[in-house]
Write a structure and sequence with these properties.
The complex is a heterodimer. Chain A has one domain. Chain A is built from 5 helices and no strands. In chain A, helix 1 packs across helix 2, helix 1 packs antiparallel against helix 5 and helix 2 packs across helix 3. In chain B, strand 2 and strand 3 form a beta hairpin. In chain B, 67% of the residues lie in helices and 3% in strands. Chain B folds into 3 domains: 144 residues; 160 residues, no CATH class; 48 residues, no CATH class. The chains are: A mainly alpha, B mainly alpha. The interface between A and B is large, with 37 and 52 residues.
C-alpha cells in the first residue's frame, strides 16, 4: 500500500504557498515600480491572507522545532516538520538567506505583508524571495516522489 | 532569460492545449464524467497561468524574471502532475473500470464530506491520492480490479481521505496518543544498557513513529467499519503472502516507518472483529498469521515500538478518530447470510456475500462472481 499520499498532500500545500509568494512578489514589485497592477490586486490580497495564515500556523511549529533541540516533533505531518527544520537552519545561513525579515519571528513577518512605505515593500520583496528559495527546495522531494526523475 | 521563459511558456501552453483536447475528446464511462470535467477545468486554469506568464514577460521588467521563472516552473510541475497522473485514469479508461468506479462512487456518496466528490481509478499497487484540492484517484492492481474479493481494500484507502477531511482534529488525537505513549515509556525504568540520553532518543522515536502508524491503523478500522468481515478477509488474504517483512522488521527499519508491521495491524483488526461480536473469526484471523509466522520461524518482536500496554491507548484513539470521521458502517443485513439482492442490497452486502461464496466453494466461485458483477452493474444501469 503506497505512501504517495504523504507527498501529494505536501506537494499541494507547498504549491499553494508558492503561488501566494509569487503573486504577492510580482504585485509588490510592480507597486514599487509605479506600475498599476489592478488585474492582480484581488489575487494579491488573497495571497496576503493565505501567507499570513500560513506564517502564523508555521510559527508555532518552528518555535517548537527550535525548543526541542533537534528532537522530532509529535502530532505533526513529517513533511511539515522537515520544512520547519529547514527554516530554522536557514535563519542561521546568512550566506544564502539575506533578508533581514528572515531573522524575525514568523508572526512578526506576517504583520508586514501589506506594506505602504517603499522601504517596507522592498523588505517584503526580499523576504518573499528567501521564503520562495526555502519552499522550492522543499518541494523538490515531493515532486520526485510523485513524478519520478527523468 | 526573457526569451527562454517565453519559449518555455509557449511550449507548455501547446502541451496543455493538447492534453485538454485529448481529455475532452475521450469517451468515458458515466462514472468518470465529473472527474473529466474537473480535469478540463484545471487544464483551463493552467492555460490561463501560462498566458499570464507571457503577459508578465511583456511588461519587460527584469526584476520580475525570478518570479516568472518560479511561476513557469510551478506551472510545469503542476502540468506534469496532471499529464502524468491525473489524465491517465481518463485516457486509460476501460469498460471494466465500471465495477470499481461504482464501488468508489457509492463510498463517496455515503459520506457527507465526500458526497459528489469525483474520483477515478488508476493501475498500480493499492493506494490513493487523497488531497481534496486535487482529483481523487484510487489505485488498484490490474487483476484485483476485475473481481469482487479485493474491492473492500478501497475502504482502507477511503480512510486516508477521511483523515485529510478532518486533519486538524485527527492530528490532535494522534498527538494525545503520542504523548501518552511517550509518558508510558518514560514511567518505566530502562531495561537495556542505554544511556539516559539514548533512552530518551529511543522513546521519542517510538512516539514519533506512531504518527503515521496511527493513521494506517485508523484506515484499517475504517475499512472494517464500512465493510465488516469482507474487509478483514481481503486485508489478510492480500497481505499474508507478502513476505517476512509483514511479520518482522529490525529496529532500524521500524523507526519512522510509514506502516506498522502487518502482523501488528492484524492484531488491531482482530481486536475490532472481536469487539464487533465475532470472537471466533478474530481468533481464526490471528491463528492464520501465527501459523505462517511459525512456519517461517518468526517470533513476534516489535523492539519496543509496540507493547501490549499500548493497546488500550491506541484502541481509544482509534475509536475517537472513528467518531470524528464517522464513516458509513455496515448493517446487520450486509453481513447476514441472506441472499444478496441486486435491487435492494448494498455493495457491502455483495462483497460480504462474495467472500462467503469464495470460502465455501472456491471452485464454483468464478462463475458466481461473473453473474453477480453483471447483476450489480445492471441494477445501477440507469442511475
Amino acid at each position: 500500500m503506497s505512501t504517495d499520499w504523504l507527498a501529494v498532500q505536501s506537494f499541494q500545500r507547498t504549491q499553494e504557498l508558492l503561488t501566494a509568494i509569487n503573486t504577492l512578489s510580482i504585485h509588490t514589485k510592480l507597486e514599487l515600480a509605479g506600475i498599476a497592477d489592478d488585474e492582480r490586486a484581488e489575487a494579491a490580497a488573497k495571497a496576503r491572507e493565505k501567507l499570513a495564515l500560513f506564517l502564523k500556523a508555521f510559527d508555532k511549529i518552528v518555535r517548537e522545532a527550535e525548543q526541542t533541540n533537534g528532537e522530532t516533533l509529535l502530532g505533526i505531518d513529517p513533511r511539515m516538520e522537515q520544512l520547519a527544520r529547514k527554516f530554522v537552519a536557514a535563519k542561521h545561513d546568512k550566506a544564502r538567506f539575506h533578508s533581514p525579515l528572515f531573522t524575525q519571528s514568523l508572526s512578526e513577518a506576517a504583520n508586514l505583508l501589506a506594506p505602504t512605505e517603499a522601504k517596507d515593500r522592498q523588505a517584503l520583496v526580499e523576504y518573499l524571495q528567501d521564503l520562495r528559495t526555502l519552499v522550492e527546495e522543499h518541494l523538490h522531494a515531493d515532486i520526485h516522489q510523485i513524478l519520478h526523475q527523468f | 532569460m526573457r526569451e527562454i521563459l517565453r519559449q518555455s511558456n509557449i511550449d507548455l501552453l501547446r502541451e496543455i492545449n493538447r492534453l485538454k483536447s485529448v481529455v475532452y475528446s475521450a469517451s468515458v464511462l458515466p462514472e468518470l464524467v465529473t472527474y473529466q470535467a474537473q480535469i478540463l477545468i484545471t487544464c483551463e486554469m493552467l492555460r490561463r497561468q501560462g498566458q499570464q506568464n507571457l503577459r508578465d514577460l511583456d511588461l519587460n521588467r527584469d526584476e520580475l524574471l525570478p518570479d516568472i521563472l518560479s511561476e513557469t516552473q510551478r506551472l510545469a510541475s503542476w502540468f506534469r502532475l496532471y499529464n502524468e497522473r491525473f489524465a491517465g485514469p481518463i485516457l486509460r479508461s476501460l469498460p471494466s473500470d465500471q465495477l470499481c468506479l461504482r464501488i468508489i462512487a457509492w463510498l463517496h456518496d455515503h459520506h457527507p464530506e465526500t458526497h459528489r466528490v469525483p474520483a477515478a481509478l488508476s493501475d498500480g499497487g493499492f493506494g490513493i491520492w487523497p488531497e481534496p484540492q486535487f482529483p481523487i484517484v484510487y489505485i488498484m492492481p490490474f487483476s484485483r480490479q476485475r473481481g469482487l474479493l479485493y474491492l473492500p481494500l478501497f475502504f482502507h484507502e477511503f480512510g486516508h481521505l477521511l483523515y485529510v477531511c478532518h486533519e486538524a482534529k485527527m492530528d490532535e488525537l494522534v498527538y494525545e496518543l503520542q504523548k501518552s505513549i511517550a509518558d508510558l515509556l518514560e514511567s518505566t525504568p530502562q531495561q537495556d544498557d542505554l544511556s539516559a540520553q539514548e533512552g530518551a532518543k529511543r522513546r521519542r522515536a517510538i512516539a514519533v513513529t506512531w504518527y503515521l502508524w496511527t493513521q494506517e491503523i485508523f484506515c484499517d478500522a475504517v475499512g472494517f467499519a464500512i465493510g465488516g468481515p469482507c474487509f478483514a478477509y481481503a486485508f489478510s488474504m492480500y497481505l499474508r503472502t507478502s513476505g517476512r517483512d509483514a511479520f518482522y522488521l529490525p529496529r532500524s527499519q521500524l523507526e519512522f516507518s510509514h506502516h506498522p508491521v502487518t502482523w501488528l495491524r492484524i492484531h488491531f483488526l482482530a481486536d475490532q472483529v472481536r469487539r464487533a461480536g465475532w470472537p471466533k473469526e478474530a481468533e481464526k484471523l490471528e491463528n492464520e498469521w501465527s501459523k505462517i509466522a511459525a512456519t517461517m520461524g518468526v517470533t513476534e518482536e516489535y523492539h519496543g515500538f509496540y507493547e501490549d500496554r499500548f493497546m488500550p491507548l491506541i484502541r481509544k484513539t482509534i475509536d475517537d478518530m472513528l467518531t470524528v470521521a464517522s464513516p458509513w458502517q455496515f448493517l446487520d443485513e450486509d453481513v447476514a447470510p441472506s441472499e444478496w439482492d441486486p435491487q435492494s442490497s448494498s455493495p457491502v452486502h455483495l462483497l460480504n456475500t462474495a467472500w462467503r461464496m469464495y470460502l465455501q466453494d472456491p471452485a464454483s466461485y468464478d462463475s458466481w462472481e461473473e453473474q453477480a458483477i453483471s447483476a450489480f452493474l445492471e441494477s445501477h444501469r440507469n442511475e
